[in-house]
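Section 3.1: Structural characterization of target chains.
Under the original work plan, the team committed to producing a structural model for every single-chain target entering the pipeline before any wet-lab resources were allocated. The record below documents one such target. The sequence was received from the expression subgroup and is listed exactly as submitted; it comprises 378 residues.
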Amino acid sequence: MRAMRPNAAVGAATATLLALLLAGCTPPAPDPGPSPTAAPSPPAAEPTPAAPLDCDGIVPTGLVADALQGGAPEPVEPVVATQPLSFELFPAMLLEGLGGLDCSWRVGSGMPEYNDPSDWAYLRLAVLPDAASEWVPLATYEGMPSTLTRRIGGIDASFEGGDLGLTYSAPVGDDWVLLSLRAAGLTAEGGRFRGVDGGDELDRLDAVAEAAYSTVAAAAPDEPGPPRVELRRLDRPAVCRGGLAAPGLLMASGASDAEVVVSEPTGPPDSFAAAIAQRARLFTCSVSDGVTDLETVRTARGFGGVIDDFTRPDLEVGFSPIAFADVPDGAGPVVGYVENDVSPRYGGDAVLAIGDSLYWIRGLHPEAIARAIVAQTY
């Protein structure tokens, strides 16, 4: 990112002395004596260093509270917490590993289940460094580029809203900034925002976005910070082998007529999450029956350490630890979490770290797939 510095305008005044060339008519001027010594110029002021870009300073707490206030009669006090939605959680973990910024706050009682009546609401603010050139508008629920925008501080932010929440996406300086509000019953009856005028809530979100955009634009070029991980070289093309070998994945899936296929991101990213996936060199091994991916395993080499992010508040609401009894002594850390409510019809998610590799597992048998990866690794 580039630090914003005020432009200095230097004006120079030039006085022109016109000599009267009438020497015969004008008496000679008296000797003026020695020229006075000019006073030394004061030293130039040092530029004020840009503030570090972090979750405490990216936007004032009062604006976060205003955006999450909803229809509550008393002022709210947001707490740092992460919403246990896997499709946002895994990209957030990768983003932190890449040296980006992912901030999240909650008000209310927390999220027991997405559709349960509750007063929970989460505000998320994420920054992907040096990605403004990759920015694309948000996608609609039909998968088409959104044509909705919000003009905020001179920046046209892409905007989308619906039952899942309200989202802003914009290129800011050199970076890509994402802002989202999630809440129970946001566009339906019930929940914290029942009876709140939609225009008022958008104005509050606009204020958060404008403050964040200003902070990001003014941050030093090396902010948010260096990557936390060392990206590893991958096979080209990617290969599902070792812990991801087909026999274990197929057995764990229970599919009688399926195969394991591999894919990796190609072409320009079509979303914020896709841009993160490309940076992280993510690749996917899927158990497919030729029509549907029954199980998917997304792998990021070098990101195993970010599993520590599962200590964030609220994640225990959505995920529980997996105990692995078959890990040999001295094998290194093996840590896994599985979604608490894995649906027999729609499946669920698990996150696994083995050494420096991080896996996001989604499907009907996420815990069984995680165990198969561990078994085949050792």
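The two ends are 42 Å apart (CA to CA).
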